[in-house]
Amino acid sequence: MIEKMMRYSFALLSGEADKFLKDLEELGVVDITRSEKPVDEASARLSSEVDNCRKAISYLESLNPEEAAEIGKFTLSPDGNISDPLALFQEILPKERQLKTEIGELRNNLEEARVWGNFDKGKIEELEKLGLRLRFYKLPKKSYNPSWASEYAIQEIADDGRHVWFVTVSDNPDYSFPAEDIPAPDKDLSTLEGILADKEGNLIACKGLLFSLKDYIPQIKDRSDKAMSKLQRYLADAGAGKAAENHITTFEGFAPVEEDKRLCEAFDAMEGVIYLKEVAVKEDNPPIKLKGNWFTRMFTVLTDMYGRPEYNEFDPTPYLSIFFLLFFAMCMGDAGYGIALIVIGLLLHRSNGLKDIAPLVITLGAGTFVIGIVMHTFFGYDISTASWVPSWLKKCMVTGNIAGFDANMVLSVLIGILHLSLAFILKAIYATKKRGFLNSLGTWGWTLLIVGGVIVGGISLTGVLSSTVTKWIIIAIGILSAIGIFLLSDIHRNPLKNIAPGLWETYNTATGLLGDVLSYLRLYALGLAGGMLGKAFNDIAAMTIGDGGIGFGWIAFALIFLVGHSLNLAMCCLGAFVHPLRLNFLEFFKNSGYEGKGRVYRPITNKQNL
């Protein structure tokens, strides 16, 4: 849900602005209206410093500790301390990357030079002074003619079966040969090996310095926090209003209502600060702080990918969390892959850079395991027919056909109808909150027609209602919906003028809604595709076992099984992430009227989260 905000207006002497902003940083909950981007050279410099600190921290935290143990640590300072670790990082990292590039090129050159071996370049120059010129060649084996040896002074150097390396020598300046020569080797093998060894030593030294900087991560974080605090104060001051010939500065800020008592006590204690407060309304464009439990908080990142709600909108995170988890699990559709995701999530807990997403991965894995059982697939195997599966568990599995269609396909469509019905209900409720009931009769008409039709149709299929009763209920719903859609969609104009817009909206809704419902078939299709590909890998792996004897066949089976299912898991995760997002961002948000144009609540604080 969206937390209620209080709007505060402050007035103080301009000379006290910096102290006032520092006091707000200590409070840590007031979002001062400010620019979100640098406004001049000074703020751009501070923003760049924060960005550089975060990049340095991210890179240093990603360094492999095992490699650090092998390389060791180095320092440029005699006393073992580094005064400016960020500057050293920015100096060493480009050198390390340049050395990696040069070493890669050297290794390629070394492979080519290995063919020519060691030679004395001075002697080649002496031959040229005597008028003898050496030319170097590399030709495909099929293009090399051994009979050339009887016509030209040729020395074959190497032959790997695909290419032939050779040299020719001649004292004739107009000498010609039926092949194009290549540049002469610049350095021989031993020289290149020496250069490579030197650069590899320099690379180790650079890596050692970078590993030594891991000890300075807290210092870099502290520098980032200070720079961010300074940037926030700068942007807040830049966005402040000035009055009385710049002697008076005014600020506008927002904070959660629950913090009001504590904040008022702090504001009253500040000397020279005058403030007014009122409950924020939509027209104030307050920042949005989402309040949820441990489960929904994991999915806030998905809401932010689309955009936070405006102050008078609904928070989609609770609905997004439930349906994204369900859709993801259905797209994966394999209980074995659910276990794999849980293991991956537990391993991510040990990673500094990806630790925050570990709970989400574990939750998605748990959901995949449960839905995988329902869809009766375990690492590509159909467990609905397995004898070792308990009978009570088989009762939870969706198998067989419904009305001639696969039961899982029908289930996907039914879930889609439920998802869209919820979207229409939310649209009607929040349209009423925004505009009032009478101004939302058109929206309620569509909600009644679609959601009411779905409910009545579902009850009728159970046999509770007779066909006659169902017919009259449908007629009543149709009449009431038509009145709202075609006559009362806008109560401020002649009802007859609402007919044409109603017909146009009917066309758009009817054509769009059918496509929206069919979009949910992707849940079934992706789960089916992943299961079939997993089964294919199982069948290929099983072919390697042969008669079942212990030997190479079992090793090949294990390799094919592990590699195949690893690839399938990666592809399934990609599809299971993208397509559920699409169903929520397009189908659900579009039909619920969600816009997501709110701004994120970012209080100025001296405790920054990297």
Task: Draw up the topology in text.
Blueprint: E1 5-13, H1 17-27, E2 31-32, H2 41-62, H3 65-71, H4 85-116, H5 121-129, E3 133-140, E4 154-159, E5 163-170, H6 189-212, H7 217-238, E6 241-243, E7 248-256, H8 260-269, E8 274-279, H9 294-297, H10 300-306, H11 317-332, H12 335-348, H13 358-374, E9 377-378, E10 381-382, H14 391-394, E11 401-402, E12 405-406, H15 407-435, H16 441-461, H17 467-487, H18 499-519, H19 521-543, H20 552-592
Antiparallel strand pairs: 1-7, 1-8, 2-7, 3-5, 4-5, 6-7, 9-10, 11-12
Helix pairs in contact: 1-7, 2-7, 4-6, 11-13, 11-19, 11-20, 12-13, 15-16, 15-18, 15-19, 15-20, 16-17, 19-20
Structure description:
The model has no long low-confidence stretch (mean pLDDT 86). With 610 residues, the protein is α+β, with helices and mostly antiparallel strands. Among the domains are: 120-184, no CATH class; 294-403 and 521-592, no CATH class; 409-519, no CATH class. Helix content is 58%, strand content 10%. The radius of gyration is 36 Å and the shape is extended. The protein starts with a strand and ends in an 18-residue tail after the last helix. It is built from 20 helices and 12 strands. A hairpin with a 3-residue loop joins strand 4 and strand 5 (163-170). Helix 2 packs antiparallel against helix 7, helix 11 crosses helix 13 and helix 15 (407-435) packs antiparallel against helix 18 (499-519). The longest helix is centred in the C-terminal third of the chain and has 41 residues, at 552-592. The strands form 4 sheets. Strands 1, 2, 6, 7 and 8 form a 5-stranded antiparallel sheet that branches. Strands 3-5-4 form a 3-stranded antiparallel sheet, covered by helices on one side.
